[in-house]
Design the sequence.
């Protein structure tokens, strides 16, 4: 017996472009797994159409939607309410349509990143030691938020443009030290975790220019990129004996709180689901 027998459940992802997104595959896997009447659709929305598209969600019967590039920041000025997590990160990844038709925005990327690490490396703890985060964009903000919330003693933030890293550090008021790009290799000394939040290493992009000689062997190396499944950074780290985590877990786990908010269901990330998505990468 379905939990929602009278209602066709609707959600989707808005982006421009959006057809590359693996989100429809993973959400529709959950609909099928539970025998629910519903679907999750890719919505190709150009920037100038975002406000109209978001405002149309209640009338169309959508429970909500995810947001991807380039809409995450702009949507903050369109929805009716934004929670503290999204405010801190400066972007929304998830919109929830409330019963009165108002729109609520949150960001589940931070949750997704931390849960993805725990899934791959059971027992991982942010308070195990210092973290080095490369990049200062939206993904970096989500990662820093996750690390500080889970008790990282300090975060070394490395970015080509120092000003952008300083702005991020100022917004978080936490134990964050900005490191000059020229000193990035030495900054790895004593770190317990290294995270690449840039697009370097993604298909069609150059590899991240970072030597791992100074990184302690016990340090975890994570990358928010999941296409390819193993970036050059992760290949080097694995060969050096580091535990490695790609960005797929972040994508899979950020979808869980969205389902909780939209449908009142807490779905699980199973090996079958992970394998399904990995086959397409």
Sequence:
């Amino acid at each position: 017996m379905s939990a929602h027998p009278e209602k066709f459940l609707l959600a989707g992802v808005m982006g421009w472009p959006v057809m590359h997104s693996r989100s429809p595959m993973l959400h529709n896997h959950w609909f099928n797994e539970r025998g629910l009447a519903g679907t999750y659709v890719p919505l190709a929305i150009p920037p100038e159409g975002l406000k109209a598209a978001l405002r149309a969600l209640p009338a169309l019967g959508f429970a909500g939607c995810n947001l991807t590039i380039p809409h995450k920041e702009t949507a903050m000025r369109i929805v009716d309410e934004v929670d503290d997590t999204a405010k801190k990160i400066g972007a929304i990844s998830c919109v929830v349509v409330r019963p009165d038709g108002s729109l609520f925005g949150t960001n589940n990327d931070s949750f997704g990143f931390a849960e993805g690490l725990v899934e791959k490396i059971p027992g991982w703890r942010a308070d195990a030691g210092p973290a080095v985060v490369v990049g200062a964009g939206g993904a970096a903000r989500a990662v820093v938020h996750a690390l500080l919330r889970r008790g990282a003693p300090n975060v070394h933030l490395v970015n080509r443009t120092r000003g952008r890293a300083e702005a991020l550090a100022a917004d978080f008021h936490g134990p964050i030290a900005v490191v000059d790009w020229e000193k990035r290799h030495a900054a790895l000394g004593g770190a317990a975790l290294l995270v690449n939040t840039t697009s370097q290493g993604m298909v069609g992009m150059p590899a991240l220019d970072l030597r791992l000689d100074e990184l302690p062997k016990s340090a975890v190396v994570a990358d928010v990129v999941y296409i390819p499944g193993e970036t050059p950074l992760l290949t080097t780290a694995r060969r050096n004996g580091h535990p490695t985590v790609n960005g797929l877990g972040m994508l899979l786990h950020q979808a869980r709180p969205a389902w909780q908010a939209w449908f009142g269901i807490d779905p699980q990330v199973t090996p079958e689901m992970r394998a399904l998505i990995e086959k397409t990468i």
Remarks:
- The mean pLDDT is 95.
- The two ends are 34 Å apart (CA to CA).
- The first helix runs from residue 23 to 34.
- DSSP finds nine helices and twelve strands in the chain.
